[in-house]
Amino acid sequence: MLKSKGYKEILGINRRNQEYIRPYNSARAKNIADNKILTKKILTENGILTPKIYKVVKDRKQLEFLNWDSLPKSFVIKPNKGTGGNGIIIFYGKKKGETAWIRPNGTVMSKYDISLHIANILDGRFSMGNKKDAAIIEERVKTDPFLKQYSYKGVPDIRVICFKGVPVMAMMRIPTRRSNGTANLHSGAICTGIDIATGITTYSMQMDTKSLLSDVYEDVESTTDLEENKKLSGITIPDWNKILEIALKCQKVTKLGYMGVDISIDAEKGPVVFELNARPGLGIQAANKAGLRSRLELVKDVDVKSIRHGIKIAKDLFGGEVEESIEAISGRKVVNIIERITLFNRQTVPTKKRGKDDKQPSKAFMDTSILTSRIAEATANRIGFLSTTSYFNSLNVPEKFNTLKEAQEYIDENIQALTLEEGIKRIAKITDGNDVKIRPVIEITVGIAEEIRDFDVIIMKDLEYPIVIGRNELKGYLIDTTHTF
């Protein structure tokens, strides 16, 4: 059930089939998406990564002579023409000394158990129309370390709905204990909406098992099966632009006009396409608290010139209000990757009655790869730290040290002289390529995202930006990597 301002714009199954699947998905295109082996072949030929196939079992004779010893410790079994995630089994390890493999919930399946499951796949138990099928034994994707902290043993995947060359809606499906480590929503996985413009998660839902109605979702704020439950809103999906690009490339090579692309992020390979869906489910609307119908109508008559153009259209149309919604549900403000800030002059107390000369506008780069923020020496001089930089430069400190230990020993021996000037709060050691340097740390006052805060910053000789803000100061913010001020 979906309760939101977009409730009247919800896309139902009949309208989806009549207005989007039948007119825009040819029989040939649907055949590609419905056949996972064919999908992998076409995507691989076009340079799109998919999980590696270890074996394909097409009949019972092949099953009878399957070389079990050749199977790795972890793998996935899935039906070639399965629907809705049915029939997929994930194995995370092999039981020592036995021909048996371990599932995410800890249960063990013997060779006999797995053979029985493959036989059911061959008989068409999980395929469309219960037609005879083939079983795929393929590589298990290793979850990206960042996303792994939100998932119960399984691999989260990102579904992107694409229509006529534009990604119109996206969600992340997160495995839970209830879903047995799979990303199947009907089995109990969590669906989390993703803002198309930024790649940041918004709302989260899970199937309500207590409801007598089908496809009823309830709000979820955090993970529930982990040692430390994590808040689900405000997650920045890695490689977001690349994910959108891959999704549209899949649409281009398959010629499916309306489709869902399921992508996971492998720890080593990056984004990998799990599968394509010519009839994607509609639960993604619950995850985003928005209807698909209005979004599809917006792009129905748009002339998309390229993949890059399609992504730009999506971000322009569907990312306008994300900052407010994300701030509301995550409690954190959104800042741009390059943000306009205000630097207050040294010894100026920021109050409501500020003079024109008390502050000056500047721009800052948000850099989560560094811990302590940094400021260019010229910028520090302009806001009143000329005496500080002149003093430190007069000490003839060595330009570089060979090791952090060597730099620390120098600081310990000269700490009194290094911090004699009142503006120097402490001395920091930094690595610059293979070199180690020591630089002074000062405290500055900054206006950012309608807040006034005091920052510790390291004075640097050369920086690309006037100030670079590091992780220490970014804990309360979400970074929108798609925009500058």
Number of strands: 22
What best-fitting shape do the alpha-carbon axes yield? Answer: elongated
Tally of helical segments: 14
The secondary-structure class comes to: alpha+beta
Mean pLDDT: 87
Q: What oligomeric state best describes the polypeptide chains here?
A: single chain
Spatial order of strands in the largest sheet: 12-11-10-9-8-13-14
Beta strand %: 25-35%
Largest sheet: 7 strands, antiparallel
Could you give the distance between the termini?
A: 38 Å
Task: Give an account of the 3D structure.
It is built from 14 helices and 22 strands. A hairpin with a 5-residue loop joins β5 (100-102) and β6 (108-110). With 485 residues, the protein is α+β, with helices and mostly antiparallel strands. 40% of the residues are buried. It is elongated and about 85 Å long.
